[in-house]
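[SOLVED] Need 3D model of a two-part complex

Original post:
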Amino acid sequence: MIRMQNAGFAYDGRTVLRGLNLHIRPGEFVAVAGPNGAGKTSFAKLLNGLNRPTEGEVFVDGLDTRRARVSALSRSVGFLFQNPDRQLCRTTVREELLFGLRLHVRDEAEAARRLERALADFALDPEENPLTAARAERQRIALASVVALGPRLLVLDEPTTGLSHAECRRTMEIVRRLHREGTTVVLISHDMELILRYAERMLVLAGGTLRADGAPHDVLRRADVLAEAALLPPEIVQVASALGEPFAGLDTDAALAQALIEARASAAG
Amino acid sequence: MKGMLQYVHGTTVLHRLPPLCKLGLAVLLSALCFATGNLLLLALLIGGSVALGALAGIGKQTLRTLLGLCKFSSILFLLQVFFISEGRVLLALPLGLAVTVEGIVFSARLCLRLIGATLPLTVMLAVTRLPDLTRALERTLRVPYRYAFALSTAIRFIPILARDFSAVVEAQTARGVELDGNLLRRVRLLLPLCVPLLVSSVRRIESAALSAELRGFHLRAQRREFR
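Solution:
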């Protein structure tokens, strides 16, 4: 789905990203983490052609992003911006969803079918005004307008910023469902718990380079990477690590609680 | 037009001039553009503004602004030139439209005036800190604080709006909007994009006003009126 070969990106004479070599296969759920200014958003924009690599090459769904138009890439790459207000431009949810569909889908019946499906999937009121909806609702409408286009790759730039725990979970469950249906997901996030819970693979960017690439529960135990990228692992990982073996490898509340109960029982027995 | 209307740090003569001197010079240059209709003089006034920009060490930025203004003016020029039918006809077009010598001269004058009146103000703002300008307006010209503050805030919002608009365009491009092709198509596609910009601007202005109020803006404005 995504192939980067020695890719780099410079802006206003400043190198933001350099020496990126990676391959993301179709259907993967990849999270990208790193400190502020690490180049996470620049990385995300390399995937839909808004940023074109200034060195090396980036291929997305077989298209060379140095040459492909952003509109051509938008057929396979859905991009959710951190601020939904930049995406929303219509006065009803129906019109908002149709805005993108009319650009991508020539068949009116097909556009209507996709619209109805998105409205149902995201439980949206078609007559609601997206511009006056609550923050979480606006984020959901923006995501629905992206998903309605049926992208094979979904790039989410900090999709849960400003959302409550419940809203965050609701949004991420939608993303999880899309991933299970075969969509490749690239999630940019600061939230390590979110990454641990949803992603299959984790990339860590720091200083414009790729510092780690692996399963989240492995990456989040690498002290050198965490220190370099100023990342704090989720509390459950910290507690499990502090307890040492045999708990150190556990990364969910349930697994740790179960292991502690078993350990106590065996100690008592 | 990145960086337009934003202060550029420097220690040149222009930077060191009192804010009101710079404002006066910019207003004078702008006023001269409206006082003369001579194309050569207008071009010289624009050249003078570019020279001032170079003197202030912001030559490249001034040229970038000039280029942006030229692009905008060229649209204005085209809109004007076809709708003035008086004078010697150079090119007759269908629907009663024509390109005339008078039309070209009038349109060129209009565009040069627009550029000539705008450029010195952008140079002045690039070499003057907004708080200094606000203070000078308030203390020397006795402009009530709330109006001086409103003026500086409005100026401060322009680059923010420009950045927001770029972000909105970027977001819509990512959705598949192709912002190229002919002018009409571009205008048709750009118009809906003004909606999110307007909404975010209103939200931003509202929160800025609330924030100022919560930090006692009203108290300061009141005290100033009592003096």
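Edit: Chain A is about 40% helix and 20% strand.
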